[in-house]
Amino acid sequence: MEQRVAIKNSHSRPGLSVRLEYWYHSYKELWRESCKESELYRIDEVIFWYADLLRSF
């Protein structure tokens, strides 16, 4: 719970990248309930590319 509070209070770009990665972790759990695992790598690439881009600013 403390992590979520820290993440919500973080408005910097690196904070946004962390929030995006936490969101994606939850999304992957939902994805695995109804979709093929083999398609997840494409989404991985986009999410982690974008998180890295946010960190670079």
List strands and helices in order, with pairings.
Layout: H1 2-8, H2 13-34, H3 40-56
Unreliable runs: none
**Estimated structural class:** mainly alpha
The description of the largest β-sheet is: none
| Portion of residues within helices | over 70%
User: Radius of gyration, rounded?
Assistant: 13 Å
Count the DSSP helices: 3
The percentage of residues in β strands lies in under 5%
- What is the mean pLDDT? 83
Distance between the termini: 28 Å
The count of strands amounts to 0
Q: What is the approximate shape?
A: elongated
Order of helices and strands: HHH
Structural notes for this entry:
Helix content is 81%, strand content 0%. The chain has 57 residues and is an all-alpha fold. The chain has 3 helices and no strands.
Task: Give the gist of this structure.
The protein has 57 residues and is mainly α. The chain has helices at 2-8, 13-34, 40-56. It is elongated, with a radius of gyration of 13 Å.
Question: What descriptors fit this protein?
Answer:
57 residues; mainly alpha
